[in-house]
Amino acid sequence: MFGKAVSYGLLWDFAVCEAVSESQRWILSAMQSHGPELVTMLWRILGNEQDVCDAYQDTFLQLAHYEGGRKPECVKAYIFRVANNTAISMLRRRLAEQKRVSSAVVARKIVSTPDGDQDSPANELDTKCLQETLRCCIARLPEHLRNVITLREMAGLSYAQIGRILGISAATARVYRCKAIQLLAVWMGKEG
Amino acid sequence: MRSINENKESSSKNSKLCAGRFGFNTDWMQNHIANCPRCQRRLSLAGKVNLALSVVKSQPHTLDLLMRANTQAIGVLKHSLREAPKALKLRTMLPEPKLLERWGKYGQSVANLAACIAVLLLMKIGVFSSMDAFQTQGQKVIRQYYTSQVGKDLADEVFAKDTERPSSANSRGARPGEGTSRSRVVST
């Protein structure tokens, strides 16, 4: 008797689970419509393919578990904000790790390199170094400025779209971008 | 609604005015930058940020990255979602360029064609309007000539009929009354 009840319970659970999954088909639609943009943004933020895949997976996993499988009011806004936050935390983690690992090597390099060589054209045009510096500085930005700069520059969204995603006006987004560029310029000047 | 549009127009006018007076390419700004080391430094730093951003944007990812990301993401979803036909399609999805990017290369040609059409239209409008002007001016001159030669009343009589029904007069030919009056005028 008890065994029968358990099996009916399991069957019921399975049926509920399947029903939830059926109602979550919109996740695949979201993946289809926003996936390419999202991958491009993550690639530009992270610059590493495995990290991109991980951040993408985390984003859709969070979307699937949003308030017990409910569809957010604005899926695009939710996806982009989650992906942005995930990518930035991954970037911070990676930078901290890199810093820890290579601190000794960098210190040795700085000691051995004369001051004039750091601003040489070859160093300036070292694109990898430039990208890493930029990523490092973006990770340090305050959240409201960082969100705007990543959505504008990395995802290539318009100010109106950014405003809708972040819940601010397009003009505010424009001002935040300008402020972010100013801060990045100062920090990159110090680091360069 | 109207006030909003007016506000938009005025703001766009103001921004244009500001750009004209305080824009980056104004003479006084360029002169100032040429002589101010602080501004030069700030500009070079902003340029460096823009350069870094464009370098980041210009780095392409591999073509199958979207496919791999989709496969990995679908792998953690529920079984029924994983087996859905849409999921199978997503697993082999490749990034497609946007419509604007796809047709971007034809932009120059389309712009040239549009410019040609605009020039042709303007020419056509110009030709027709100048023909019209020529016709009205000619009529005026002839009327003035008749007025000076045969008197205002007679000229009014002749040209009033012409102006009243110019099309019918042209299409149906001259009427018996008109012909006689003209011949009379000429003979006098």
Helix-strand sequence of chain A: HHHHHHHHHH
Helix percent band of chain B: over 70%
Strand content of chain A: under 5%
Overall geometric form of chain A: globular
Are there runs of chain A of 5+ residues with pLDDT below 50, and where? Answer: 10-17
The CATH topology of chain A comes to Butyryl-CoA Dehydrogenase, subunit A, domain 3
Total helical segments of chain A: 10
Largest sheet of chain B: none
Describe the 3D structure.
The complex is a heterodimer of chains A (192) and B (188). Chain A has 192 residues and is mainly alpha-helical. Chain A has helices spanning 2-23, 26-46, 49-64, 75-112, 115-118, 121-124, 127-140, 143-154, 159-166, 170-191. Chain A has a single domain (25-191), classed as Butyryl-CoA Dehydrogenase, subunit A, domain 3 (Up-down Bundle). Helix content of chain A is 84%, strand content 0%. In chain A, helix 8 (143-154) packs across helix 10 (170-191). The longest helix of chain A has 38 residues, at 75-112. Chain A is globular and about 50 Å long. In chain B, helix 8 runs antiparallel to helix 9. Mean pLDDT of chain B is 76; it is low at 167-188. Chain B folds into 3 domains: 1-59, no CATH class; 62-95, no CATH class; 109-187, no CATH class. Chain B contains 11 helices and no strands. Classes of the chains: A mainly alpha (192), B mainly alpha (188). The interface between A and B is large, with 47 and 39 residues.
